[in-house]
Specification:
Radius of gyration of chain A: 22 Å
Largest sheet of chain B: 6 strands, mixed
Structural class of chain B: alpha/beta
Number of helices of chain A: 16
Number of helices of chain B: 17
Oligomer: heterodimer
Largest sheet of chain A: none
Helix content of chain A: over 70%
Strand content of chain B: 25-35%
Amino acid sequence: MSDITDSSTDGTTGEQARASWRFLKNHLREYGILFALIAIMAFFQVATGGILLRPVNLTNLVLQNSYIVIMAIGMLLVIVAGHIDLSVGSVLGFIGALAAVMIVNWEIPYLLAAILCLAAGALIGMAQGFWIAYFRIPSFIVTLAGMLVFKGLTLWLLAGQSVGPFPRQFQLISSGFLADPFNVEGINLLSLLIGLAVAAGLAGLAIRNRAAQARTGTPDEPMAFFAAKTLIIFVGIAYMSWLMAGFRGLPNVFIVMALLIAVYSFVTSRMTVGRRIYAIGGNEKAAMLSGINAKRLTFLTFANMGMLAALAGLVFAARLNTATPKAGAGFELDVIAAVFIGGASMAGGVGTVVGAVIGAFIMGVMNNGMSILGIGIDYQQVIKGLVLLAAVIFDVMNKNKG
Amino acid sequence: MATILEMRGITKEFPGVKALDRVNLKVEEGEIHALVGENGAGKSTLMKVLSGVYPHGSYSGDIVYDGEVQKFASISDSESRGIIIIHQELALIPLLSVAENIFLGNERATRGVIDWRTTEARATELLARVGLRENPKTPVGDLGLGKQQLVEIAKALSKDVRLLILDEPTSSLNEQDSEKLLSLLVEFRKQGVTSILISHKLNEISRVADTITVIRDGAAVSRLDCGDGISEDDIIRDMVGRSLDDRYPPRKPNPPGEIAMEVRGWTVHHSVQSDRKVVDDVSFHVRKGEVLGIAGLMGAGRTELAMSLFGRSYGRDISGEVEIGGRPADLSTVRSAINAGLAYATEDRKTYGLVLDDTIRHNVPLANLDAIADGAVVNRKREGEVAERYRKRLNIKSSSIEQETINLSGGNQQKVVLSKWLFADPDILILDEPCRGIDVGAKFEIYTVIRDLAAQSKAIVVISSEMPELLGITDRLYVMNEGRFVGEMPTAEASQEKIMARIIKTGERAT
């Protein structure tokens, strides 16, 4: 790492410490969320006597939260654009029902049915986004209506019954694992290798970015923080993949999730379209006067949300192996909570995909850990509610101070 | 006549600016006292000090009202002594009825229960006093602006007003409504109510006012008694009477280039009241290498003209033709206007110019993202270089390009907005109040950039309410008033008096 030159090396140690402190204060939120997740995991790891990070439980944790994470990615874009989508839980349920009716009742091939379901989800998103973007109907109202409409349509489609089971291949979306060509006893070597490759790749990317910043003379993150953060992420991913490799390997849905996180992180942070969505959420008038087509982008953001809710619907239906009229009830609240815990702002323009995903896992780890500890659903709700409130209070106080 | 109000040596400072500098104002009981001055001269600040918006302690000097030194801590303090201010933007709630509005915050109630019969009876009485024949149950939003103004006055009367302050009450009224309002003030004078009238319309002032105080650059420069046959020219001279010094970069004479943009018969209707023309049959042109000024008072329709040209960002029922580079231009959306070579830097940088929570790095390329992207992917290196280049070129004082624009001073924010449009590389750049609310040093830097752009044969249009600024940096001037262009002159032949005279002469004829 000799290519990294820290701009503050020529200062005295006192100045360095002060610069570090200032940096930490300015970026408390970004580090805070990561440390919060680590602290919560450590707490439950100890409190559950090591059950939390057992390979089987860790795998379960991923499977249980996959659909929340998938929807949180879409919701992050919606919230960054300055809107909200309350309909995602109902859309998830509706698409699950649609898949069940198509595959089980009408015997449409599962692959075709899945594609049709994703298209239906996108259409639902467009139908809502149309009113929000082009007629300026508040998204809260439009998607509240959508929530009721699709809850009703789910009931109608299923005629109040559960429909299932799905064919074996369809179930594999959720319950399948990455096949291992190496056949090593007791460990899924391919999964481990992929995990290590991703961990190394992320670290490499971070180091390259840092080097590029150093060349243009703008690295303001102190070296120690950068090294610690990169190391924690590397070790964390490597350790998780080792744990999961020891059980049955990486779940299919984990791969889907990881790809989505990578793609959407790239879209939001590096592509012009992402830049434009942040600009709209930050100041719609200024964005429009800069020649950005805010209406079309808002519309597309909702179409994307619909499609991701549909994907989550397929994952959820495959996991339960049945479509029930109750599927998805209340999920929108978990998704929205995850995005806000992850640092997004209600006013729009602020938030990251990775933050939203970490927010989803904070909620997921708490659900899982508290269930293992045998804490009743009543207390679980209270604690989750307080964590959400605390995260947002922390955000607001932190911002007011700055 | 007794003196009802005397403000002595009022000084009010904002960070970096002295808004009022030892201002004296003396108002006699039962007179109509006019307060005149250019935009930003300090009239509104003075009235905010008087009404307690800026509480005692935040200014220096004394307010003597009714023979006692007053220490108003809030508006309710001054209101309880009978000082009522009616702002230019009316403080009425459109969906509530006339009666509800009149007694808002001052409800006729016993133990929290509103007595509707008394409310309506009193409202009817007050409406009769201001000569408004309307049902007190009518929602205020259903009334025209002139009638709403009268409701505001009725509201003031309900609080037993002794000193009524009106901030440009007729600026958005037609002649008939203005006339009615002015005769009402004369009627009040007979009843012993004192009024302070802030206005730009000198013809109105010379008709009703007893005394005039002229404010300029935060100081009261003269007190004129209307009994002595004061002419409008005298008032104008006092309003603008300052000389131009070297606050402006030297002008290198540019040979006039070919016409960059030509606008013909541009008409725009108000975005809400669709029967009102805010821009009325305006035609003008600007040449390459020329700095063109558009002078006028606030509300003349200059911003509306610029924004409607820039991708129809304002107004409805827009008609007229625009040619850029001799060919008809498509300005139907902001994107197509930018592509046609037009750029518009807003007067309101916080609302329309910047994504405040975002960094300099992200704000500068916003209008031309494709230029820093490879396909659809932002090239962060090029983005950083662009932002850094403009940060240096415009001398944006900041820790780095990663600084959020919300933390920059007004002048530096303005430079970021300017950077954004320079990076979009327009042929015609419209700058709306480019130096509003920024310090002298930053002003000079921005003027220099404007002259540089002209030297690179860009066409620049500067909209400004500060006449010295227009005289200092432009080559040619149009004067706009009440939606129309009412004069055109080379800057070399222009003066503040000439411009003011144009505005006021047309103001008299306006319907």
